[in-house]
Specification:
380 residues; Elongation Factor Tu (Ef-tu), domain 3; OB fold (Dihydrolipoamide Acetyltransferase, E2P); six-stranded antiparallel barrel; four-stranded antiparallel β-sheet
């Protein structure tokens, strides 16, 4: 753009010298040169400071890597590349047979666990009955032992011998041990029956969660569009092994989003680049047309200053690298109306409110001149 301004001034000087027949001598030529240096230098400084120009601009968009939640062989592909899709449309299907078998297995295990809960309840009732019987046997054995001990104490061996009393005592102790065993069995059965979480048996709750996980995997065997948009360079075909690895996406999905341009600017332009400032953008693919827009924001960080915790020291060469600020501009027009692919490139200019000599007009003219040159070849 600076070269265009110099060439324009040179052309005007040639015209003036020719039309007015100004002689070329040691006074006129130096005057034209020095005047050009002063005039063009002033204009360039004012333009570059108040209305920064981004020589490199490119449309920025977000893509979503399609990574299946499950691993399997692709059974069918239903989406077509570069065709608009709606959220939920099927992209491709993974063979569901392994996941269906897992769901059936978990359903059977859950039914068995629910049946075991009913069996445990019956076992609890049986343990309670056994405890009652054991207590009744213990009470009967105790009564018999007391009667034998009392008879032996009163009549001696004539009524009940010491051996008979000892036998009855042993029967009583055995029945007491049977009561303790029945109580322990009842506690064990009650703990198994009352083992719950959220009012549901723990084993049943665990299998229900596993069944939900299996059903989720079965549902995710159908890969769908995450939002409105399209897939491009779609190379998935039946028979391909789709892996749930983040580093190996099966496809790239481009969601519908507002198209924005990102421009690269020198850091000395940042003082005049305030959000909301007017912007103009030219795109190489649309020669001669200027897109109006507004500066949305300037990214708050530059990659040249990024430092992360690694085992590598930062070199002085990296510190010496000159970073450029990135500005995001939202266009008033929709680039889809021009049939442009995402990622088109161009150039942009930001116009601040400070314009004492109205040099923004010259910036606009020069920007349009660059846009006209795109009819022949793009200016880099």
């Amino acid at each position: 753009m600076d070269l265009l301004l110099i060439l324009t001034y040179t052309g005007l000087c040639v015209v003036i010298f020719k039309v007015f027949r100004i002689p070329l001598n040691k006074w006129t030529v130096p005057t034209a040169i020095l005047g050009g240096i002063v005039l063009l230098g002033t204009l360039l400084m004012l333009m570059n400071y108040n209305h920064p120009y981004g020589k490199y601009a490119k449309e920025s968009f977000i893509s979503v890597p399609i990574v299946p939640a499950v691993k399997g062989i692709v059974a069918s592909v239903e989406a077509e590349a570069n065709t608009p899709l709606q959220q939920g449309d099927v992209l491709f299907r993974i063979d569901p047979k392994p996941f269906e078998m897992k769901v059936s297995r978990k359903q059977a295990q859950l039914a068995e666990a629910e049946q075991q809960v009913k069996q445990t309840e019956a076992q609890l009732e049986a343990a309670q009955a056994r405890l009652k019987k054991a207590k009744a046997d213990r009470d009967r054995a105790k009564q018999s032992f007391d009667r034998y001990a009392k008879g032996n104490k009163k009549g001696g061996a004539k009524i009940f011998s010491e051996q008979e009393v000892e036998n009855r005592r042993q029967l009583y102790l055995a029945s007491q041990a049977a009561v303790e065993a029945a109580e322990a069995d009842l506690r064990r059965t009650r703990l198994a029956f009352e083992s719950e979480i959220g009012g549901v048996n723990t084993k049943v709750a665990q299998l229900r969660a596993e069944l939900e996980s299996a059903e989720y995997d079965l549902e995710r065997s159908v890969v769908r569009a995450p939002s409105d948009g399209l897939v491009t360079q779609f190379a998935v075909r039946p028979g391909v092994m789709a892996a749930n690895l983040p580093l190996r996406p099966a496809a790239i999905f481009i969601p519908d989003q507002r198209r924005t341009m990102v421009g690269s600017f020198w850091q000395n332009s940042l003082l005049r680049m305030q959000p909301g400032a007017m912007a103009e953008v030219i795109i190489d693919a649309v020669p001669g047309h200027v897109f109006q827009g507004k500066l949305k924001s300037v990214l708050p960080a530059m990659a040249e200053g990024d430092v992360q915790a690694t085992g590598t020291l930062i070199s002085a060469q990296r510190v010496a690298a000159h970073g450029r600020a990135l500005a995001i501009v939202e266009l008033e027009e929709n680039l889809d109306d021009y049939g442009l692919p995402r990622g088109v490139q161009g150039k942009m200019a930001i116009f601040s409110e400070s314009d004492p000599l109205h040099v923004s007009l010259i910036r606009r003219i020069l920007l349009r001149m660059v846009g006209w040159l795109n009819y022949v070849f793009p200016i880099k």
